[in-house]
Q: What sequence folds into this?
């Protein structure tokens, strides 16, 4: 919620004419902040959600699909690989792996695994990630750094290092901290643990001095002050040094490979009938599947997908067979789906749960052929009726287990 407040406050100042915001979620899994950012940046923006651990990308893709915005690219790369997209992003979020002190209250395992050696190891890793993220950020762009830990080594000391080594500058905080219930802690006489400043929100503010016009604002959330766990955040701007041309036209390394393949000439007409606004969509073949992208983002998606290891992007439309689309589950959840592309089957709660469990359902509930299954007006997925036989197309890996 607080990250959303920061992004809302800075996004208007960061917009460049002719395109939406480009946002990088550098440490994205499982995707809570990714989906938040996808909503904030809107249809014309693009969120690149990166996760370095391949096993964790499945949950990230699943959440991007469920969100249905179609403006997310999921990547599986080491942060250093983002040097290929130097200066590409307007906003970079680094919610870094940390020692997890903010989880001590609710997670005994976090307490058992803690050590001073791990704190130092995390701080070193965080500095490497921050350096790579800084390179991917455009001049005058915004870096948001956060952890779920309390110690200064991983928090303020890393921010001080960014100011000293990379020239990170602060921004005015009034835009996203106008509520008088936020607290100030800007001097040694009012340390973060002092109860004299506890108010409704319980946010403890700090500042890291820089050589720029503004200090870098920091924010601490303590579990005894807020309804939640421990959290730290800092916001800094990358100096532009008058480099406005680079901000508008970032340096992107030459493509490593071609990702998008041309579609058959008859494909666009078939694909267009599945989306509510075909005039704003671009379709492309990726491997044996077809994907849809809003025309305003397709160039950026291509730059990312041809520079990095993209696991998922845009909207997975499905596969073409003899000129007809066999729709993917992700298309059913797309916010821009044409709801009249297939007959709708509106189910009761009991029938909807049977569908999600992949239990037997009466064929009489569905039209012959492909059906869009809905509950309470919301699409759940696809089902195909062939006479008295039902082909439940809900992904088996997502089904609700029957106890």
A:
């Amino acid at each position: 919620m607080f990250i959303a407040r920061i992004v809302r406050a800075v996004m208007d100042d960061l917009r460049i004419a002719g395109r939406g915001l480009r946002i990088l979620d550098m440490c994205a899994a499982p995707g809570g902040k990714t989906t938040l950012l996808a909503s904030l940046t809107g249809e014309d923006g693009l969120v690149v959600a990166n996760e370095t651990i391949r096993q964790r990308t499945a949950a990230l893709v699943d959440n991007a699909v469920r969100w249905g915005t179609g403006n997310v690219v999921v990547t599986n790369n080491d942060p250093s690989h983002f040097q290929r997209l130097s200066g590409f992003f307007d906003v970079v979020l680094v919610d870094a792996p940390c020692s997890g002190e903010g989880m001590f209250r609710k997670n005994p395992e976090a307490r058992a695994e803690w050590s001073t050696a791990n704190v130092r190891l995390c701080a070193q890793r965080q500095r490497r990630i921050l350096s790579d993220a800084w390179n991917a950020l455009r001049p005058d762009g915004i870096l948001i750094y956060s952890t779920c830990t309390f110690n200064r080594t991983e928090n303020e000391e890393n921010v001080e290092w960014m100011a000293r080594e990379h020239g990170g500058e602060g921004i005015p905080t009034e835009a996203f901290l106008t509520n008088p219930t936020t607290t100030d802690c800007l001097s040694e006489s009012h340390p973060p643990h002092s109860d004299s400043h506890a108010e409704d929100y319980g946010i403890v503010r700090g500042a890291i001095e820089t050589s720029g016009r503004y200090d870098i604002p920091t924010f601490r959330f303590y579990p005894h002050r807020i309804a939640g766990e421990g959290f730290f955040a800092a916001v800094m701007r990358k100096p532009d040094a008058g480099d406005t041309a680079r901000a508008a036209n970032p340096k992107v390394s030459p493509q490593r490979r071609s990702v998008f393949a041309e579609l058959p000439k008859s494909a666009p007409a078939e694909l267009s009938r599945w989306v509510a606004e075909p005039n704003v969509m671009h379709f492309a073949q990726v491997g044996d599947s077809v994907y849809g992208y809003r025309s305003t983002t397709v160039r950026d998606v291509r730059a990312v997908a041809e520079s990095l290891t993209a696991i998922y992007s845009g909207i997975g439309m499905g596969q073409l067979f003899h000129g007809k689309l066999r729709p993917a589950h992700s298309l059913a959840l797309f916010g821009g789906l044409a709801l009249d592309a297939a007959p709708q089957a509106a189910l009761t709660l009991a029938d909807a749960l049977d569908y999600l469990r992949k239990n037997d359902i009466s064929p009489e509930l569905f039209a012959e052929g492909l059906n869009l299954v809905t509950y309470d007006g919301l699409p759940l997925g696809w089902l195909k009726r062939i006479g008295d036989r039902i082909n439940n197309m809900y992904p088996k890996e997502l089904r609700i287990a029957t106890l």
